[in-house]
């Protein structure tokens, strides 16, 4: 495209039209000048496509922390290539990911989406993924720039942070990605940074990103994260998402005509949009084209590989693992039958299929029995799991959309379809005949109880709803509504009702819902997402004591027990943070009770971020399995039975108690402010500095074999680079992978520094009895410098640097040094 020529042909109205979305996922096309629309899609762990509600199935990759746990840049590059190809199948030209914020606390609702607490691990992995995505011609929009490190009131929270911590910890993953991969788009964060919203932050967007880093791509806002007209345009926010626009359109034109900004500011923003359109033109994606997916055995196999590589063997006393497939096995726990494949919120997508731990284990082991042991739902499970639809008795519920409320006689049906998931987030639902945010929905399903029981029913909404069983009102989430954390924090709490139902009888469940404008709940700082949504829950009342009793009895009867516990997308999601680091009620008691009756026990924890494990000493083996995407259960089974040797390493520190974490006293908002009081001491930098005990350290992860590192050699070509090399021998009986972690320590610095900082890493596959050589290049600018607020620059200090090499941040086995002769300063990338 001749960008300058096209620009000269556009009217001001057309230019401004290009600077916002037209709907949830598309920008505006201008056919007159052959300017196509851009389609964007989340996101960090797969390509959902242009429908969150009832979307086209997709490959779901393991969550961010799981990808972080692979410590494998080659694998992330492959994952990126797969995401790029899936994006093309979904006619998407901009992928909204990866997410590379920092887990400054274990409680961040979206901690699972980001890779690591460490900027180098995050940056290197993000760079690899971006290279992979962009190698297909698709653009990666890295997010959220910057300091969206917690969810509470994310639109108004103000991260108060020192320049040094901002540069060294929070901007660094973006800076590394920019240096190594040149992502062609950035998404701004919702929050403020030192008093100014990221989406209108001149220092971040103009001075750092476009000035120092010479970024020449597209900057877009997070969804409903634009808060001004002239300020955002001037700072460099190219596109307001989603559409229809709130802040551009005639308001942006008025800003020009009133002289608040000049048309040249608009032109700069339009240039970035046109450049982006030009960059993705070779993909040949047609506007608003229909979506496909890549669902084949190769995708499945690769997803399984990635999930396997992410699993971390936290503990294996007495070599309980790997288990035998030939012994009698009990699979116990609330996460066994549930495929916890992803965290919640905008990272969620509809997977091709999701394999539960139980299914994966049953496919491997000969004799498997199951007991639930405890429940772990936060809200009631989806009602659609136990309902069916007449006349064919297919599982699920029927959904009907109307323009008018039920009070209007013979109201016209917009459309009807079947759903298998009664959690319906309608944010991006569209229909050509709907021209307002206010419309009405009915959801209907039949229920036939297998036993006489009291049933619980529930409604959680952003909007208003009532639930009827055989015409009787059982749940009312309309007359009075309690604010809750649902629907990205803008919805209600769960409203529960109950009714005694009888075996063999048929019950009609009918829910009447009206969309978001009818909601009585209004919250500041939460993101109001489009049209709202409803979640319908329901299940028979369960008796916790008998669940536990049955599980303990089963555990006594088998040779080995696998206990599946953890969180799921209900506990880790968007718009709110976790209240504590604990497992759902009942899980700790379950683990302890099973450990008492059968010592041959493995605990599998699934969570995106750390949970407390008060039973850690009572169990011999623990696997951390994250949210593993489509192949969750298969990957777990591969590791459990030794078909794969675990090689994952923790990408974050695992505290004993939530109180131990560096941000503990600084997570709650105070007059809208969140003070990053721990400064640069995030994660292991904190635990090291104050010498505080930790459950499992950053970088930790065991294997079924053993490695020995030796022969460290450090050659410095100061002030530019240093080469760190050595050997890794596999002295065990199985082949496996080891991550060589290179930390630097600089005790004679002029400024306070962490005890050690990760500066590079590499993952090696070593066959049993073999030795592999590693050679790692350190860029000394990045490895040795600190950010000086006084100099407003990086300072590479002279002195002797200690190189510490090991297999975790607390298992350092080799040490060396190199010297830098003169101090120098630098800026840029
Ligand atoms: C999230 C973004 C996401 C966007 C679109 C927002 O709520 O913060 O990460 O890309 O929604 O789904």
Short description:
With 829 residues, the protein is an alpha/beta fold.
Strand order of the largest sheet: 9-26-25-24-10-11
Rg calc? 27 Å
How many beta strands in the DSSP annotation? 37
Q: Report mean pLDDT, rounded to a whole number.
A: 96
Summed up, the helix count is: 18
At the fourth level of CATH, the homologous superfamily of the domain at 297-378 and 544-690 is Glycoside hydrolase family 3 C-terminal domain
CATH top level class name of the domain at 297-378 and 544-690: Alpha Beta
Strand content: 25-35%
CATH fold type of the domain at 297-378 and 544-690 = Rossmann fold
- Helical/strand content category: alpha/beta
Hetero groups in this structure are: beta-D-glucopyranose
Major sheet characteristics: 6 strands, mixed
Low-confidence stretches: none
Q: What is the end-to-end distance?
A: 29 Å
Q: How would the blueprint of this fold be written?
A:
Blueprint: H1 3-9, H2 12-17, E1 40-42, H3 64-70, H4 73-89, E2 94-96, H5 119-134, E3 139-145, E4 158-160, H6 163-170, H7 172-181, E5 185-188, E6 192-193, E7 196-197, H8 202-212, E8 218-220, H9 230-235, H10 249-257, H11 263-280, H12 297-310, E9 312-316, E10 328-332, H13 357-362, E11 367-371, E12 388-389, E13 394-395, E14 397-402, E15 413-419, E16 423-425, E17 440-447, E18 453-462, E19 464-469, E20 472-477, E21 495-501, E22 507-514, E23 533-540, H14 544-557, E24 560-566, H15 587-597, E25 601-606, E26 621-624, H16 632-640, E27 673-675, H17 684-689, E28 707-717, E29 721-730, E30 736-745, E31 757-766, E32 771-779, H18 780-784, E33 785-788, E34 793-796, E35 799-808, E36 811-820, E37 824-826
Parallel strand pairs: 1-2, 2-3, 3-5, 4-6, 4-27, 5-8, 10-11, 10-24, 24-25, 25-26
Antiparallel strand pairs: 6-7, 9-26, 12-13, 14-15, 14-17, 16-23, 17-22, 18-21, 18-23, 19-20, 19-22, 28-29, 29-32, 30-31, 30-35, 33-34, 34-37, 35-36
The chain binds beta-D-glucopyranose.
Beta-D-glucopyranose is lined by residues 42-43, 96, 143, 222-223, 346, 488, 527, 574.
